[in-house]
Amino acid sequence: xxxxxxxxxxxxxxxxxxxxxxxxxxxxxxxxxxxxxxxxxxxxxxxxxxxxxxxxxxxxxxxxxxxxxxxxxxxxxxxxxxxxxxxxxxxxxxxxxxxxxxxxxxxxxxxxxxxxxxxxxxxxxxxxxxxxxxxxxxxxxxxxxxxxxxxxxxxxxxxxxxxxxxxxxxxxxxxxxxxxxxxxxxxxxxxxxxxxxxxxxxxxxxxxxxxxxxxxxxxxxxxxxxxxxxxxxxxxxxxxxxxxxxxxxxxxxxxxxxxxxxxxxxxxxxxxxxxxxxxxxxxxxxxxxxxxxxxxxxxxxxxxxxxxxxxxxxxxxxxxxxxxxxxxxxxxxxxxxxxxxxxxxxxxxxxxxxxxxxxxxxxxxxxxxxxxxxxxxxxxxxxxxxxxxxxxxxxxxxxxxxxxxxxxxxxxxxxxxxxxxxxxxxxxxxxxxxxxxxxxxxxxxxxxxxxxxxxxxxxxxxxxxxxxxxxxxxxxxxxxxxxxxxxxxxxxxxxxxxxxxxxxxxxxxxxxxxxxxxxxxxxxxxxxxxxxxxxxxxxxxxxxxxxxxxxxxxxxxxxxxxxxxxxxxxxxxxxxxxxxxxxxxxxxxxxxxxxxxxxxxxxxxxxxxxxxxxxxxxxxxxxxxxxxxxxxxxxxxxxxxxxxxxxxxxxxxxx
Length: 655
Hints:
By secondary structure, this protein is an alpha+beta fold. It has a domain of 270 residues: Helix Hairpins (Orthogonal Bundle). The protein is built from eleven helices and eleven strands. Helix 7 runs parallel beside helix 8, helix 7 runs parallel beside helix 10 and helix 9 packs antiparallel against helix 10. The longest helix is centred in the last third of the chain and has 99 residues. It is rod-shaped, with a radius of gyration of 62 Å. The two termini are 38 Å apart. It is found in: Cell membrane. Belongs to the methyl-accepting chemotaxis (MCP) protein family.
């Protein structure tokens, strides 16, 4: 399982690149999508507003064109009466027609008189003016002028309409025919959006003017279903596979419907162009972001790679490795601290190596001294045994006392000499052990110094992580400012687009501001991602320092154990030294007593039993001393083995 997990690990480089791309893409796509949606909605709103505005303008134009004619019909219905002669009426009609260009003709029809019309026109013989729509309409509505539905003139084939009114005295009807070419021409010339158009329909949804449909054509049923009985509104319709958005308003004066047709394809094509621009800006932003981010990623990965390579070599025991990072940032400071740590390790290893060599030499000398002491003690034991044997023989044969006494003197002299030698060797061993103990203490102090250095590095790396967090907060603030600037520049661009030609210069400036804001936002996002990775690597460095601290603590424990061993050896050597001094003192006393024995040979027989008991006690003490020497030898051997292991461990390092 561990091997599989290690295979799945992704390198820092890949993680940085993936994080950088994600941080770059997500805000860019989000901002681009929001900008596209908002711009599309804004553009659609402008198109719809433009269509409604054109419908309103055309409605106002119709009212402005028709209202004066109605007022004029009402005026003439008040002044013309049955008292006027036909000549007076015709003269008044001619005068009016000459000053009003929109009027095609003016007609007055009175009971008992011929039809009076200006300009004059010869009608067919079967023409009955009293059955005309304009006459009937006026008679049916005597209170106010009546607008007759538009019709196509039989004389010039133009679209016409009539306004008729009953004369105040009831003698007849006046009708004014006006040419609608101005209104229909203007209607056909209006464009709604890119390819949309305006139309004019009567109250029954019959086309009066349209750029694509012949006048008099009945509109589709969907128009009647959505427009009948309503004064204004809008709806969607599909004609011949073309989707349209219809805006309409009923003219209150005429009852006609002013219609604006906005093609859905115009909206789609316009929003598609916005989408193309948004995608282009997004791609350019990503490319620029990658070009900017790649050197930054390399500047982070190179120090990490150098640190990793150097740490790996040091882990293999090569303390000669140095990190060459000359930058003045946190990586440079970390490299400087790392190199100082390596120098400290080199110093410690050299000192431990020197002390281990001295310890090995001292342990060898101690071993040699112990062997000599064992030999001397063995000889002492043999001498004492011989002395005991002589005492027994003296007990059995007093005649050989002189010879035995002489042998005893010789043996005692040899014992004294060996005891003195053992005392000197023991003191020398004690000095070597004390030197070794001091060496171990120095090594422990040096390990404590290393521990303090590692903790200092750990603190520096922790402070680096805190500084990275502070920088991240500052970068977040800069990003928020850039986002606000981007929104303001977008609003400014929309306002500049509404201003048309006058806002082009301002639109360019707003666009530049928006680009700078986007670049700032992207740069701060990149920095935030880089700082986040630095914090992760810093935490890993802290964990590594903690592991190194644990290893140093283990080294301190091992050194303390070695110090305890030296203390034990020192105590044993002191004990042996005391015992050897006691033996030496006893040997000198025995030599003194042997002289007394030579002078008092007569008393030997009496003291034989006493001497025999003393010799037995000395033999027991000597055997105990021999056992102690064996323990010292074992401890010396163990110390020698530990010194050799320490040397082998140190030899693994190169410095």
